[in-house]
Amino acid sequence: MSPIQIAGNDSVEQVIQKTNIARAWLDVPAQDLVSVEPQFVLRVSAHIPGSSPAVVDVFEPAFKRLHQMTAGAIQVKAFWGGSLHKEREGIEALKAGITDMCPVYSAWDATMFPAAQALSLPFIFDSAEGATAVSEALYHKHFKKDFESQGVLMGRMVATSEYNLFSREPIRTLADIAGKKIACSNGVESDLFSALGAIPVGCSTPEGKKAYEGNEVFAISISDSAAHTVGLYKHANYRTSANLVRVNLEYGLSPTFYQQLPEDLKIILNQWLRGLAQAGAQLFYGLAGAKACEAFLENGMEFISLTTEEQSIWRNQVAPVKQQLIDQLTAQGYSGDEIVEDILQWAKHYAEFTSDELMQESLDHPFMDLLP
């Protein structure tokens, strides 16, 4: 794990020290917001509650930044808590003109987004912000076709922090999950738990929360920040850090909304989206994750780290999943080997950046090829 980027065991103070640029970007003084009627209203919708740190600490301040960057030409109307559409109906909602930007997570449907599953292979990335940079760097080359074939554009790609296992009973060895149902994302994460001898139950966060609270699954695999946001920690006694996986959570953008913008606003919107992606990775999965861990400990949760020997056992068990995915992608007409090799090379490149440098890079040199 790179100490210059946000680590899963960083304290709140350590994360704050690493995220100066992201926090400054989201700090928009009221006097910088001109009071004008918008030329365009960007409707943003999601299943996450309006009280989530993702909303309060990232999205809402970022909407002010968009207002400032466009001098009020683009302003946002947000719909949280699944109030506009169900979480799995994002693509349909975008195409039907119900919303303009919303979740279209590749982790929810591996059949629709095969190539993006490679971003969830284990033991590649140092941090959410590093993984986010890699996903956006490679979007045009490897992932664009799958998303745009669904009739949507890419709004932002954000990688999560590493997922942990939350359970009522301790998970210290592979035997503790053998034959047990684990709520997790679809695609690679499900393949990983199958390789470990567990029974994966592919689901969204709301579905996983319901299954776990109803005792339908033994444990749930989820990020710290998301576990805190939906209150899962109140029902879990243990948090096991297996360091297996992180997933990519994409927000799709309506082609209709984007195409109506003049060229100057298209450029600004893209710049804003790149900043939003990096800030979200650092401040929701990083800072909110560290704050979540404090809440878990205050609630009496026990943190479990696998022993070095146990980690080796788990790693050996999941090792075949990488080649399995490459073979699946190749069979579907993708360049499986090239996708994985590119991810590894870009991950190595961005491992040399600090969190602040990654944020600054997204502002100074935003990728311009995610949108037409």
TrEMBL record:
Highest taxon above the source species: Bacteria
Keywords: Signal
Any one of the GO BP annotations: transmembrane transport
Statement: the UniProt record of this protein carries the keyword Signal: yes
InterPro entries: DctP_fam (IPR018389), TRAP_DctP_sf (IPR038404)
NCBIfam families, A to Z: TRAP_S1
Name of the protein this chain belongs to: TRAP-type C4-dicarboxylate transport system, substrate-binding protein
Organism, as annotated: Polynucleobacter kasalickyi
